[in-house]
Write a structure and sequence with these properties.
Radius of gyration: 18 Å
Structural class: alpha+beta
Largest sheet: 2 strands, antiparallel
Distance between the termini: 55 Å
Number of strands: 4
Shape: elongated
Strand content: 15-25%
Order of helices and strands: HEEHEE
């Protein structure tokens, strides 16, 4: 059986997920340790200390390796 969600509650869920998308799509400036170029990277990757790629020189680095 499919349960229908009342309209106001549906909009509340949509705005909650839109807010999560907004937070994950923010960008932050990061300096490449190789060429010292300052570029914008996705904030979620920087927070997770994921490996980033410098768009200028192609170097792979982690933000916390500085």
């Amino acid at each position: 059986m499919v349960e229908c969600v009342p309209l106001p509650q549906r909009y509340a869920l949509m705005s909650f997920f839109d807010g999560l998308k907004f937070l994950s799509s923010q960008k932050t400036k990061v300096t490449c340790p190789e060429c010292k170029a300052v570029t914008e990277q996705i904030s979620a990757k920087v927070r997770k200390n994921s490996t980033l790629v410098c768009p200028k020189c192609g170097a792979l680095f982690q933000p916390k390796d500085r």
